[in-house]
Each structure stands twice: as C-alpha cells, then as structure tokens.
Amino acid sequence: MRVVIAGAGAVGRSVAAELLENGHEVLLIDKSPQAVSVERVPEAEWLLADACEITTLDEAALERCQVVIAASGDDKVNLVVSLLAKTEYGVPRVVARVNHPKNEWLFNDAWGVDVAVSTPRLMSALVEEAVSIGDLVRLMRFSQGEANLVELTLPEGAALVGTRVGEVAWPQDTALVTIIRGTRVLIPDPDDALAAGDELLFVASTAREAQLEELLSPRGNAGS
C-alpha cells in the first residue's frame, strides 16, 4: 500500500516508521527543511515542498495512493490537504490529525476527511475508558457514515451477562468488533457468552449510541 503523509514532525515520522515496519510504501512531505530529516526515517521517500500546493501533490503522485494522512501541526493545512486529496485525486482513504478540539467539527466528509484523529479527545477517552464501567466511551470518529469506534465495559448486574453474542438484538447500524477479556482479544463468535468485565468495542452510528448504552446497562434487556 502506498501512503503519503503530509507533515514530517514527530507524529508524521512515528506513523511513517510504523507503516514501513508493516511493509507499506511511505512518502513524507514537509515544507520545512528542518523537518525533512531523512536519516530519522531512511526507508521512506521524502519531499521538501508545500503539501497544500497542487504541483507538490502532482509530484507526490497522489493518484497512485491508497491513503493520505494529513499529520501536520496546523489544522488549516490538514483540512486543505484532505480536501485536495479527496476531490482532486480521489484518494480512497484520508486520515487527518485534529490539533485543536474546537476545530473538530470541521473534520468531516465535506472536507474530504474519512477518519479524524483528535489527540486531546483520544487521551481523554482513554482516561475515561480506564476508569468507566457501564458508560459508553467514544474512542474515534469515522466521518463518513457518521460512525464511531466506541467502548463499554460490561458491568456486574447487566442483563446481558451470560447471554450469547448471537442471541443479542443489537441496535441497527451497530457492529460488535472485539471483546477484550483480561489479556485475551476475542473475535466475537455467535456462541460466545458475554461476561461481566468484558471490554466491548463497537463500530456504531452516532444515532444508536444511546440505545447501545441502554442495552448494556444493568437495566438493559437481554435477548432478541
């Protein structure tokens, strides 16, 4: 997979290193000569240029990319790169970094963003996830389709404890993707019985989150 990352700061370089380790082809773009540190990620391609310029993106051959990551420290830059990648080059997947929470509402499909990653929101969500039982925690927003990655730890006394996954009438537009049980990561099987303390990860539409939280609460209704 070919990935272009706009922004070669600490975040961009870290993402590039991970992707390269997983066997992907990566091009890093930055207009700052200080940021273009080829020796830090020598396996990547590098381009010293302004990622907001069409000529730069032409040189980067964005039409051959499967993913563009807008990872700069400037939200305006990330929005422009996302919009150009989606509308001018038809990049299938655009991931954008949100630096300031007040700008998060802009990072949606209108600006070409498929997935918005807000570091402040993610950090607060991880804190909530660590201390919350029975409360739904939103970990990540997928802009297209109005879906979110959400987590809920099944509390003692929930009606669904002991119920098989396949017997649960999950809300529409909701998918259980992973069960974390102690140190184990389980791919949900219809015959798996839910247990108190299970961390359940869902992809769910925003409109269904309240239904999902109610279903998994001690007051929720088990079965279909």
Automatic annotation (TrEMBL):
The keyword Lyase does not apply. Keywords: Ion transport, NAD, Potassium, Potassium transport, Transport. Residues 137-218 form the RCK C-terminal domain. SUPFAM superfamilies: NAD(P)-binding Rossmann-fold domains, TrkA C-terminal domain-like. The keyword Cytoplasm does not apply. InterPro entries: K_uptake_TrkA, NAD(P)-bd_dom_sf, RCK_C, RCK_C_sf, RCK_N, Trk_Ktr_HKT_K-transport. It comes from the Bacteria. Pfam families: TrkA_C, TrkA_N. Residues 1-117 form the RCK N-terminal domain. PANTHER family: POTASSIUM CHANNEL PROTEIN 2-RELATED-RELATED (PTHR43833), TRK SYSTEM POTASSIUM UPTAKE PROTEIN TRKA (PTHR43833:SF5). This is Trk system potassium uptake protein TrkA.
